[in-house]
Here is the input.
Amino acid sequence: MKKINAAIVGTGFIGPAHLEALRRIPNVEVIALVEVNQALADEKAKILGIPNAYTFDEMLKQSDIDVVHICTPNFLHFSQAKAVLLAGKHVICEKPLAVKIEEAEELVKIAAEKGLVNAVHFNLRYYPMVRQMKTMREKGELGEVYSIMGSYLQDWLFLQTDYNWRLEPDKSGDSRAIADIGSHLLDITEYVTGLKITEVMADFSTVHKTRLKPLKAIETYSGKMLDMSDYQEVPINTEDHASVLLRFDNGSKGSITVSQVSAGRKNRLNIEISGSKSNFEFNSERPNELWIGKREKANENLMKDPSLLYPEASALVSFPGGHNEGFPDTSKQMFKEVYAAVIEGKQPSNPSYPTFASGLRELIIGERIVESHKKQAWVKI
Ligand SMILES: NC(=O)c1ccc[n+]([C@@H]2O[C@H](COP(=O)([O-])OP(=O)(O)OC[C@H]3O[C@@H](n4cnc5c(N)ncnc54)[C@H](O)[C@@H]3O)[C@@H](O)[C@H]2O)c1
Here is the structure.
């Protein structure tokens, strides 16, 4: 089988997660990386065991690179994804796809014109229990959806001294908690239920009105190591916390709460979907379990075991029951589907994986949520 060569742009937190996932897929090799400057690229290439370190423009010129993974801060996604597509290469972009709706629309258009494989890394869809919920719903085991309640809570921005480029709108966009983690939750909500969000009513809060910005460079999640003299106080204009009421196209209602300042919640996506036959609850900090609530009999707690899941979900399982799988496995499972399309050389007509169109959808919902907060009113999607 033909070997597929990939390059990774940005090797902070999530770039190496892409690398590890790709190293677990047959016939795929990561042959190059790109960093913010050549010295850092050379250093990272040595650490990560990647043979070539290029500038972005040099990387685009390499004819042996088939696929490019964009793992840089949000404001770079549009220009980099566009350049990759125009260079005729397939692209897997981190979420959010862009910082503005118009940019994402342009990317969707260019990707369609070129016919190239395009994906957005909404990897949390690839927990087997998320696919199991979707499949159970498709088979009628949830019944009519009555309501949806979701939350995504983290604590890595809990302290006033916690700092990251995500706190700067020129790098992250006008929304932070919603764009950064709410996007995953909203994506999963529509993916599992098959419903579309039609209206939103949002209320944000910025708990730390100012933060202490480190004067030295630090990578995501690597804070807590500096002295007070290493900080400068800066104003913060994006949300630490957001509550959003949701209306769906079947008339049902729901809500989400997203926070990056919830002590002890490390990275907890929780979704509870109440239907006329069952209630499903999934928690990403316990991803090998699915709670299935019942009225007329005992509740069930389904443990991840490929022999107990529907084939659609067991397709995302690599290990037997009791051998826990987690966050790194989600990217591997997603890339298996995306690289099957890369081998075919084009975007399938109905891709199983999240595409640039999914990325555009999240930007539209996210922008309406910001608008709703500003107007303190319901806004239609
Ligand atoms: N899907 C997920 O679960 C998930 C998880 C974390 C992050 N992300 C997304 O991944 C992206 C990166 O986040 P992160 O947490 O890895 O950030 P990070 O700050 O840890 O890493 C970003 C990297 O990009 C590099 N970089 C900056 N400018 C560059 C340029 N012009 N060219 C090449 N490299 C450049 C930085 O040096 C750094 O190594 C964000 O868009 C974020 O939303 C997604």
